[in-house]
Every structure is written in C-alpha cells, then in structure tokens.
Amino acid sequence: MKIRKRFLPRTPADCGAFFFVLFMVPSTYWFELFIVLPAMYTPMSFWYIIHFICGTFIMVNITSNFLAIVLADSSINGELMPSTIEPNNRFCSVCETIAPPRSWHCDVCKTCILKRDHHCMFTGCCIGHFNHRYFIVFVLYVFLGALYSSYFNCFFVWNILDFTSPLTLLKFVFPLAMIIFDLDASEKQCYLLLFIINLLATVFTGALLWFHGDLVLKGIVTYEKNHHIADYDLGKKENIKVVFGKRWYIAWLFPFIVSELPHDGIKWTPNNLIRTEGIKNR
C-alpha cells in the first residue's frame, strides 16, 4: 500500500466532519458496551459476552478501515503516467501531466486521483482506486454498528425516559439545543442525543451503502454515473473484484487481509475492446 504523505484534512468542513467521526466512534462504543449493554444483560453472562464481542469486532473494523482509507494513497503522485495522450487519456493542466482513464483532479486534495469516485469529507480525502475497498467496508460496518446500537437503544431509552411528560417531545426534537442552552444537560439527555445520532447514522449510511454498492456492481464511479459512462462494466463478479480484489469473498472481514487488485489503476481497457479481443481469440 502506498501511504499518503499528508493525511490530515485540508478544509474547515473536512476538519469538522473528520474530527466528528474521531469523537463519535469511540463515544458510541463506550456508551453501547459500558452503559447500554450492562443495563440489558447481567455482566459476564452468555449474551453479554456475545454482544460485547460483536460490538468490539464492529468497532475494530470501523476504526481500522477508517485508518486504511486515510492512509492509502490513490493519487497519481509517484506513479508512472503515460507519456502520450492515448484514447481516454487527458492532460491535466493543474498537475501538468497526462492523466489515465477514470482519473480526475480534486481541488481539495490538489492532485489527480486514480479511478476517483468522490471526495469524502468524513475522511478528509478522495476515495479512489486503492482505498475504494476500505471505504465501502467502512460504510458497511458503520451501518451495521449504528443499526445494532439503535436496536438496543430503543429499549434503553424507553426505560430511562418519562414519555408521559410533554417536555419529552422537545427533548427528542431538539436534543442538542436542550444541552447547549442548559435546559436539560443531564446524563439522560446526553444518552438521548447519542440515540438520535445513531438513528440518523443508520439512515445516512444505509443510503450511502445502497448508492455506492450499486455503483460497485455496475462497475462505475460517481462521475461516470453522472455522465452516463459505462465503458468499464465487466459484469457484477468482475466489478466486485476490481474494488475488493481477487480475494473479494473475505476482504470485507478485515482490512489487513491481503486481496490483490486486478488493475493498477492506470491502464483501463473499455469493455467494448475486451469483447472484441475475446471474439478474435475464439
């Protein structure tokens, strides 16, 4: 893996989103496993241990995939670029180099990104050829973690809040405002805030997973979807391999599982040429 030299976010928006993730992930882990779980099960009982292990497994995957996204360098920096402008190549006037197919310049990262999908403000970097796998798996585990947490939080919040009080509705609608303006800065209100954040995270990451999972299966990235380009669709199984590598069937279990990518991110052959070559070789 080629490591990025500068991995901290560059813009105020990226910084806010980046450090929000860094704060929320361990906070949610602490809340779920050390506040909610002991309230639902007797500590060290069978189901307590099972849920503790599952929660920790999800937490490890969230943090390790986040780290892999941030550290993996998908830029053209240090890569040997084409020396001539061939079909589907283009010249980037900012980087002053010939960029290969599926590579586009990012104004935030200030470089061209190989098979660029989008710039992710939550990781402060672009999602491209070498960190696409980690991004998809990161979103998957955040979704699973948020959904898992929300299920238990529903029972937990039901037991700690008084739903007969009209003030409870305001606490649900304006959870953060209640704390900021000192209308209710109790532990219960903080727990309610975490519960609502988890619900929102479930919806948000579920939508992201649906959107980007569909792109992966179709063998396209966001730019190609927006411009109706489908030149590199190889079929669902091969499209999955392009993102997750040759060991795609276990690559989602842990980011440190080696799964070699079938492409270098530079040389992309349009699917119409692949079909033509296949016919010639028959």
Notes on the protein architecture:
The chain has 282 residues and is mainly alpha-helical. Helix content is 56%, strand content 6%. A two-stranded antiparallel sheet has the order 1-2. Strands 3-4 form a two-stranded antiparallel ribbon. A hairpin with a 4-residue loop joins strand 3 and strand 4. Mean pLDDT is 88; it is low at 275-282.
Question: What is the first-to-last residue Cα distance?
Answer: 37 Å
Spatial extent as radius of gyration: 22 Å
Strand order of the largest sheet: 1-2
How much of the sequence lies in strands comes to 5-15%
Q: Which term fits the overall shape?
A: elongated
Record field, number of beta strands: 6
Give the averaged pLDDT, no decimals. 88
Low-confidence stretches: 275-282
Give the count of structural domains: 1
Pattern of helices and strands: HHEEEEEEHHHHHHHH
Task: Report the helical percentage.
Answer: 55-70%
- Largest sheet entry: 2 strands, antiparallel
Number of H/I helices: 10
Structural class: mainly alpha
